[in-house]
Amino acid sequence: MFNNLTKKITNIFDKISYKSYLEKKTIKKTLNKIKLAFLDADVALNVIKLFLKKIKKKIKKKKINKNLSPSQNLINIILKELIKILGKNHYSFNFLFNQLNICTVIGQQGVGKTTSTAKLAYLLTKKYKKKVLVVSTDIYRPAAIVQLKRLIEKTKANFFPSVVTQKIMTIIKSAIKEAKRKKYDVLLIDTAGRLHNNSKKIQELKKIQEYTQPNETLLIIDSMIGQDSINLINKFNKEFNLSGIILTKLDSDTRGGVALSIRTLTKKPIKYIGTGEKIYDLQIFHPERIAKRILGMGDVISLIEDIQDKIKKKELNLLNETTKKGKIYNLNDFLIQIKQIKKIGGINSLINKLPINIISSNSLFNDIDEKSFIKIEAMINSMTKKEREFPTIIKASRKKRISLGSGNTIQEINIYLKKFENIKRIMKKIKTNKKNKIFESIKNYLIK
Predict the structure, then answer these.
(1) Taking the domains of the chain in order of start, what are their residue ranges?
(2) Shortest CA distance to 108 belongs to which of 225, 189, 206?
(3) Which segments constitute the SRP54-type proteins GTP-binding domain (predicted)?
(4) What confidence tens digit (pLDDT) does each residue in 92-123 have?
(5) What's the rounded Cα separation, in Å, for the pair 71 and 74?
(6) Pairing state of beta strands 244-248 and 216-222?
């Protein structure tokens, strides 16, 4: 998420970090570089102009924090303005109490609408402990109904069956009746994908809105379409009273600048962001956390939430026993860690939430990717119980057998065992109650 923009921004700040005084010329040059970085990330020009105008105004007021260096003061000003542009507050689902909450999910075809509906169902049941019923009104695509049903089976929500031969209003009336009868908290209605200029389907959706009177109408926007999404939001909002946006595919190589433009240009909040293909890859949009990620400060809070939500206490205790009781950290523990990282979205998800300076200063993150983790897991699974517990006994003959069993070359096995030794050293520091430099650095780096 925002990888290219984050790299550019952190490079800009690195060049001024050592300065004890920032001249007007340096500030102007820095802001111009930020402007170019934002333009390259597909942020709307008028949003950039407004953003820079506010920063310049703050700099002139000279509200300086004496505990921070000149560069840190500038970063602090930029951070605060970035949060404002992203929306300042975070907006979650608008729950009505003691009555059925109805949410219609709308958008164009191919933007991930059906998948987002299922992800939202998962989030509402998992995080908010709500009783959720989901129905599809996409009678134009039989596969859409089947797809949604299969996705909902992965959640704790329930699916209300519908078929393409039914009329849309019949499906909706039946679903509402069922939701009220069985006292569901939320009814999610996945509507058919439609273009904003298709008058027939727009009228059809208007009938749905008029009848259901939803307290949430969420528009799905594909972040990869860039600034065209602004026009889309405005056109859909003209026809329907949108309560918020779900921005999908922020895990892709998209430039992602549209996220910085939406709130300013449409006045509509981004409520959720899609960050992957898994059913749990939908997050509440937190402007402050996103702003810090853009500026290379990481998002440790979201990382902690991922660990709490996706890893069971029993699994965490397996490693706690190793660190607290003084046991030797071995390849079994390493395998547990790999599986836990996979559960929170993989190594890329982990790295993207850590501050840039932590990643760049720690060799553990160099040349490690999802493929490496798959190969490491295969390597460990090809070992004997004794080899996992005592990796030092793995010599040439054993490496050859492990190589044949795991599909790794002997050179790769040497590399992965070396990385294991690096992690083992860190675990030893934790075990002997020394400060964990990585997390200490995170604490010191974040600007409050």
Answers:
(1) 3-86, 101-300, 303-445
(2) 225
(3) 269-282
(4) 899 998 899 999 999 998 888 999 999 999 99
(5) 5
(6) parallel
